[in-house]
Amino acid sequence: MTVLSSHNPATGEEIPTELQATTSEEVDRVVTEAHLAVPALAALGREGRARLLEAMADRLEGGRAGLVETAMSETGLARPRLEGEVGRTTFQLRLFAEAVREGSFLEAAIDHAGQTPLGLAPDVRRMLVPLGPVAVFGASNFPLAFSVPGGDTASAIAAGCPVVVKAHESHPLTSQLAFDALRAAVEDLGLPPGTVGVVHGREAGASLVVHPLVKAVGFTGSPAGGRALLDLVNARPEPIPFYGELGSLNPLVVTLGAAAARGAAIAEGLAASITGSGGQLCTKPGLVFVPAGKAGDALVEELAAILAESVAQPLLNIGIASSYREILGRLASTPGVTSAVTAQEQSEPAWAAAGLLVTGSAELPELLEECFGPAAVVVRYADEADLVAALQQVPGSLTASLHAEPDESVLTRRLVAAATPVAGRLVFNGFPTGVRVSWAQHHGGPWPSTNTLHTSVGVTAMRRFLRPLVWQDAPEHLLPEELRDGHTGTPRRIDGTLHV
Asked: What's the whole-model pTM score?
């Protein structure tokens, strides 16, 4: 047995644990338990699943103090950030509970038998049903909201799928504490233990995605890690959906009018967005397009001054800090690139300081690499044509942001047209860090930011773990409650008319 350890990135101290890496035999047991829990989750019905999600939120809230303290020691993230993450995690669990009760996620539709322009037609009834057990990979940068109790887990449970989470090796103790809270909620409702499971270790993760009873995978992490898992998924005898959130540059554009009108305010907001949580947010603006000329010069100088005064921060682990320094150094050595702020070396290997690189649009093709940490690349553009051409080179991203003035409406429309193919969320006169959890949210984007059209944040994240099923000429007693005549309480489209 391999005993796991953890590390405090702020101090370098090793944190002993009693946790052990999960063997392939144990993975098989955990996944089999999840498979056996499918009927129990189905028997709960929507109201029961909503109560389960709320019980999970209650248990996490009850363990808030321990979760925050443990996560601080394993991630180096500040207390206010982690307190907010507990709130976000419990909020999204309760939001999914509301969505499950409301029922529109089922996309229920009924077409009664009868004459149609094409002749006599059968009775057809359709809605979405759960896929089965789901594997979720916890993220390094969100030890709660994108990890064991995070949005992938919440949306899968809401859809009616048992979940097995592969805990992230950077915060195993936090993961186990969160799992214990979820398992306690499962026990509170008398459900099978396989409703939620957890495994530890990279080999366990590989065993998990190839297990024949796993029906979908949710992943948030590096492009390299995502590609490796995707290769395993595609090599299965039965390929399954793989929902990966990978890497994102998140371009942010400042027009000439915006730079002249509020350059200092934009610089201040940008600095906070670049350095927040150590620059380890998937929506961090990594590419900033600033116009050539005096207004742009002043904005870049102000941004550089703020970043130069910012304090170094511990990154999530030594590996991330090392990669940050390596990539930033490689980008800085590109011909035509200057370092407006040089990330100073730190005595502790997991700590990192902010960096800022400045270049022209001609060098952009050599700089399209995510630098995960508190740094950004400023690209100075000459005119509208130069900017549009540069945007068209940017790889798919989770977000694209645009700072413009009201009298630049024609330019704004052109820039929106150029940015739309690049991003999954367009942000206007704001900053992309901070992702609202809501019904309307979409957190995804074109490759390589994700490999899917679906979202990992918000109510429609459930859609990833559901599939359509049609009942044709079925006896009423075999139909789900939501598809029976006379049922109320679920939005349904009946003979083409929406009933809510």
From this structure: 0.96
